[in-house]
Amino acid sequence: MNKIILITIILLSGLLLFGCTSSENTTNNPNTQTQQAQEYAIGESFTADNLEFKVISFDEIYALGSEYLYKEASEGAMFYLIELNIKNNSNSEKTVTISNDIQIIDSKGRTYKPDSTASMYAKQSGFETFSIIETIQAGLSKTGMIVFEMPEETTGKLKIKPNMFSQEVTVNLN
Fold it and tell me: How do strand 169-172 and strand 156-160 relate by DSSP bridges?
């Protein structure tokens, strides 16, 4: 009796494995290829992971701060300030990790993360800045600056991906 059960299990396992494999070539199958990031312009709203994003403005400056706390950009660099509004359209609070979820990719493919030290100086300049981690309650929104230090005359795109399961979205900053 045990031999019959063992043989049955082996046969069913083999059928299951055989049925799950496919000899179909999936390289040209559009359902298996990675989706391209959706691209938006400054001023356009878009939604990712029940969060509505809108890049309000993009500015370039050489120095941040006040007379007491002052910081100049490194030689050959500028501070890039991005004013962003994030609205939580879900039924529960959402956490956005600004330092990981939002980056700039320049025209040469280099990646830049927000500069938390420069954000502190931007706050001294009177700008409302985002923290490294922002929690936004359901139905509410937050607006703030995100500061990057990058080489002068850099062009690129803001990349937003609120979590590893959401689709990447880009905003053209040119």
Answer: antiparallel
What is the token pair recorded at 71?
A: 């910081």
Q: Residue 88 to residues 95, 116, 168, 169: CA-CA distances in angstroms?
A: 9, 23, 17, 17
The tens digit of pLDDT for each residue in 105-146 reads 999 999 999 999 999 999 988 899 999 999 999 999 999 999
State pLDDT tens for residues 47-79.
Answer: 999 999 999 999 999 999 988 889 999 999 999
- Which domains are delineated in the chain? 37-172 (2.60.40.1240)
Whether residue 80 contacts residue 59, with contact meaning beta carbons closer than 8 Å, is answered with: yes
Q: Is the full-model pTM beyond 0.70?
A: yes
CA-closest candidate to residue 161, choices 117, 119, 105: 105
